[in-house]
């Protein structure tokens, strides 16, 4: 199974379209939450329309949870609202992959910024690899026999997961990156245990 993993669109429709152009060959696109624009409502409905049309698998982000708690379904198309409201806080693929916005310990608000926080999150749930967003930066932590280390993922360079290790991977942000002027996404080939970071321009 080949996954294309994106997060934190925040109303940037052009960036989302650019990302999808890089993901035409994957088997499943996964979105790790946060549709709304931080500053205004631009791009909200169009983003949902695209995600729905592309049959994207999604989990809820902290901004999504806020919108769903404050607004009524009548403000956008009912089918889109139902699609949006159906997103879980976290999702799994068997016992191997955990999809979440924040992290295993706090699905909406966690920020896994160092080895200490990564260690706590590795012990919060059982998984082989967790993909998350929320921080708007690309990160990777590897857990081996109780020890955690940070891995630097380079754009376009394949990183292969070790069978005896566990991983927490931050996929960055498509629409509002904080580690580059270019948005990011992650490709994960489950068959080969290969991860590749891709970057795209922000329009």
Summarize the structure.
Helices cover 22% and strands 29% of the residues. It has 203 residues and is α/β, with parallel strands linked by helices.
| Pattern of helices and strands | EHEHEHHEEHEEEEEEE
How much of the sequence lies in strands comes to 25-35%
CATH domain topology: Purple Acid Phosphatase, chain A, domain 2
Anisotropy-based shape: globular
Report the count of strand segments.
12
Pairing-aware structural class of the strands and helices? alpha/beta
Task: Supply the CATH superfamily name.
Answer: Metallo-dependent phosphatases
Strand order of the largest sheet: 3-2-1-11-12-9
Total of helices: 5
The CATH architecture term is: 4-Layer Sandwich
Q: Whole-number radius of gyration?
A: 16 Å
Low-pLDDT stretches are none
CATH class: Alpha Beta
Helix content, binned percent: 10-25%
Domain Calcineurin-like phosphoesterase: 1-189
Family: Belongs to the metallophosphoesterase superfamily. YfcE family.
Pfam families: Metallophos_2 (PF12850)
Organism: Heliorestis convoluta
Question: How would you portray this structure in words?
Answer:
This protein has one domain: Metallo-dependent phosphatases (Purple Acid Phosphatase, chain A, domain 2, 4-Layer Sandwich). The chain is 22% helix and 29% strand. The model has no long low-confidence stretch (mean pLDDT 95). It has 5 helices and 12 strands. It is an alpha/beta fold and 203 residues long. The two termini are 30 Å apart. The strands form 2 sheets. Strands 3-2-1-11-12-9 form a 6-stranded mixed beta sheet.
């Amino acid at each position: 199974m080949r996954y294309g993993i994106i997060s934190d669109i925040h109303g940037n429709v052009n960036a989302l379209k650019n990302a999808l152009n890089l993901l035409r060959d994957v088997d499943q696109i996964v979105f790790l939450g946060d549709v709304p624009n931080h500053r205004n409502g631009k791009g909200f409905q169009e983003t949902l329309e695209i995600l729905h049309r592309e049959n994207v698998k999604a989990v809820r982000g902290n901004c999504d949870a806020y919108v769903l708690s404050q607004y009524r379904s009548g403000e956008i198309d009912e089918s889109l609202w139902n699609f949006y409201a159906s997103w879980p806080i976290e999702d799994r693929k068997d016992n191997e992959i955990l999809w979440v916005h924040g992290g295993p310990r706090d699905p909406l608000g966690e920020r896994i910024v160092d080895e200490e926080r990564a260690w706590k999150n590795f012990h919060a749930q059982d998984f082989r690899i967790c993909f998350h967003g929320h921080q708007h930066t690309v990160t990777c932590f590897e857990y081996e026999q109780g020890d955690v280390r940070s891995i630097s993922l380079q754009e376009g360079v394949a990183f292969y997961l070790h069978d005896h290790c566990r991983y927490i991977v931050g996929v960055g942000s498509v629409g509002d990156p904080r580690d580059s002027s270019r948005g990011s996404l992650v490709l994960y080939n489950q068959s080969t245990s290969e991860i590749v970071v891709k970057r795209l321009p922000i329009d």
